[in-house]
Write a structure and sequence with these properties.
The chain has 346 residues and is α/β, with parallel strands linked by helices. The protein folds into two domains: 4-92, Immunoglobulin-like (Sandwich); 100-343, 3-Layer(aba) Sandwich (Rossmann fold), CATH 3.40.50.1820. Helix content is 29%, strand content 29%. The strands form three sheets. Strands 10-11-13-12-14-15-16-17 form an eight-stranded mixed beta sheet, with helices on both faces. β4 (39-41) and β5 (44-50) form a beta hairpin. The longest helix has 18 residues, at 191-208.
Length: 346
């Protein structure tokens, strides 16, 4: 029997047909509870995990043969998912359902590539998506998406936008998909990157496609940090932020990240935001994070600090982890609420 849910949790199995296999381990997010080493039994290699407290689990098997280890998909599970780090097998727990808009029959829209020149050594490539029926010169709301190509490829964000426009839950709007050329350097609180997007970037986008209503910016992980910093820097031109699993690193929570090259810059910048007690330009801020994620504690702190400073914060914890499917599944209602709150004011 392949991977399945048991009365007490989850059972994973690897076929014992290959006598060269000397061990099997589970390769998955550290937040998934339970052991990692499979037990050899007469009918195969078996691993029993406690109930993970998640809607779905992405995983692979680390199969040892002699001195070598091959990391492979679960051959007994046909369900896989593409991730930023390659394919993974996925086990969907009872009650999980993908978002409705994935199956919506909507036109693909149009893509318009451009670049933004500013203070960064490299220009910032941006691809603007527009829904069918929205003329290039027609003013419309704008959503800026950090890690834009990955968000579209792995989280289908333009399909989400098209489905909500077609359903009438959101007005016709454009997405500016920002390409992360130097992701770690740019998305770690880089003043040059933030100034480039806040000034030349928004100006260039508005010249190409007129913007109506305050801009909303979004991103995940380091992109979530960058979206918040850009929103704070460019308010009131930016009126809303949507940050998913934001990398709001703090020394007290994130010692495991302290060796990261940009940890010092990020933690100092985050602390300055946490210390703020007032804002002249309140933002609508949506935040999602997996309740079991390493980033959960620093996201809770950031949500509380932003509320204290006067921002309108909507913070949700979800039963998934640090991956694009989790971020995709939380776009509705998380992102949709932010967009409606910002754009319905106009």
């Amino acid at each position: 029997m392949p991977a399945h849910v048991t009365e007490g949790g989850v059972r994973l199995r690897f076929d014992a047909g290959d006598p060269a296999v000397t061990g099997v381990g589970l390769d998955c997010d550290p937040a998934v509870p339970g052991p990692r080493a499979f037990e050899r039994r007469d009918d195969g290699w078996v691993l029993d995990l406690p109930a993970p407290g998640l809607d779905r689990v992405e995983y692979r098997f680390a199969v040892r043969r002699g001195a070598g280890v091959d990391v492979v998909l679960d051959p007994g599970n046909p369900l896989t998912v593409r991730t930023a780090f390659g394919d993974r097998s996925v086990l969907e727990l009872p009650g999980y359902a993908p978002p409705w808009w994935l199956d919506a029959d909507t036109p693909a829209g149009r893509f318009d590539p451009m670049t933004v020149a500013g203070e960064t050594a490299d220009d910032v490539p941006v691809t603007v998506w527009s829904p069918d029926g929205l003329a290039d010169d027609e003013p419309a709301p704008l959503l800026v998406v950090h890690d834009g190509p990955e968000y579209d490829d792995l989280a289908r964000i333009t399909r989400c936008a098209a489905a909500h426009v077609a359903a009438g839950t959101l007005p016709p709007h454009r997405l500016a998909l920002a390409h992360p050329v130097l992701r770690d350097a740019w998305y770690s609180g880089s003043p040059q990157y933030l100034r480039t997007l806040a000034t030349a970037g928004l100006d260039r986008l508005a010249e190409r496609h007129p913007v109506r209503a305050p801009v909303v910016v979004m991103g995940a992980s380091l992109g979530g940090l960058t979206a918040l910093l850009l929103g704070l820097a460019a308010a009131p031109r930016v009126g809303g932020v949507f940050a998913q699993s934001g990398s709001f690193f703090q020394v007290r929570h994130d010692d495991a990240e302290s060796g990261y090259r940009y940890f010092g810059r990020i933690s100092r910048t985050v602390q300055s935001v946490l210390d703020a007690r007032h804002t002249d330009h309140p933002l609508v801020v949506g935040m999602t994070c997996g309740a079991l994620e390493e980033n959960a504690a620093n996201n809770r702190d950031m949500a509380a600090a932003l509320r204290r400073a006067g921002h309108d914060v909507r913070h949700r914890e979800v039963a998934d982890l640090h991956n694009y499917t989790a971020w995709r599944d939380a776009l509705d209602p998380g992102l949709v609420e932010v967009l409606r709150a910002v754009w319905d004011r106009e």
